[in-house]
Amino acid sequence: xxxxxxxxxxxxNVRTEIIAGITTFMTxxxxxxxNPDILSSTGMPQPALVTxxxxxxxxxxxxMGLVTNYPxxxxxxxxxxxxxxxxxxxxxxxxxxxxxVLISGIVxxxxxxxxxxxxxxxxxxxSLKRAVAAGIGLFIALIGLSQAGIxxxxxxxxxxxxxxxxxxxAALALVGLIITGVLMALRVKGxxxxxxxxxxxxxxxxxxTQIPRSLGDLVGAPASLSPILFKLDFPGAIKLGFMxxxxxxxxxxxxxxxxxxxxxxxxxxxxKDGRLPKIRQAMLVDAFGTMFGALLGTSTVTTxxxxxxxxxxxxxxxxxxxTTGVLFLLALFFTPLALLVPGAATAPALVIVGxxxxxxxxxxxxxxxxEAFPAFLALAMMPFAYSIxxxxxxxxxxxxxxxxxxxxxxEVHWFSYVLFVVSLAHFLL
Length: 429
Hints:
Radius of gyration: 21 Å
Strand content: under 5%
Shape: globular
Order of helices and strands: HHHHEHHHHEEHHHHHEHHHHHHH
């Protein structure tokens, strides 16, 4: 173990790595409850989704540790799962959505293997990258609030309005949001997971949570994957169009790049030029995770920023990631517990993650209108149009237009013009 993970070389030991792995697992285990709840809205069976979510996270995370020797963990990405469930799947079915995810993963893998990702990274304006992250934050927060009944439809008067928050699901979700918010403010490790579990327990007293009658309601064999395993519809995926698949690829690719660089900086991995050694291997593992997850029956898998929690506890090698992955495997036997969690308990997690993703807005230069306008359109269109793809397309249409109008066409990379044409066609066709 010492020789394989190079523990001494990285100034760490087995105990520290295991504790770091447990910490990372605690901070991201909420995905076990949240992802199946979101994806089940498409008609996919929730028990099978729990198994798929856990297996995709476990295998991808263990592979990351073994291939790169980095302490990074992976799981189905927040925001991308909402895009899958509420934008993509309703068009041609969840099977077509899984096909689109697999195609995006294959393209991601090829771009990483050929070293093209870095060139694409240079071509996309930083302001749009940050706007997409913030827009997804608003998008999933809106989904969480609406699923909880805190925000309800009020068309045509005001389109949306505040729901009845005094009773039922909305009241429980609001309590859960307050609990999780307080835990986050106190910097409690695993705050989102603890918030979900506490809200679930409170729901037993309000009638929102089914009360377990035996140990079998908490622990048991994992559910079969057969209802969703290899259920991909490629003709349907092609019908979804370029922009949908590109959006899946875009968010996965740049979310992964940002997370890897941020976590690597925290761990002290960056070289003197600010580059991450073995970044290609890390990106390829992430792309493999997306492909593997799609085959299992879950949405896009990506590297989690919660990996920094384990890094903060001293995790410096792949042993941290392997520990996190093994804990995910053990969680397979708590599938019945995951199925007890009500939507009112997972909705607050969406809002909290939305808050965290909004932090990206700080990197947008709102004093420069040619940067601010495209960024704002991308950010605002996601929740208002209820589509990540439409938000990304709006930003790509606006960016070269305002730059050229301002006489600053030299700031526009040639690839941005390609994206302009594609995005315009997305809206017109």
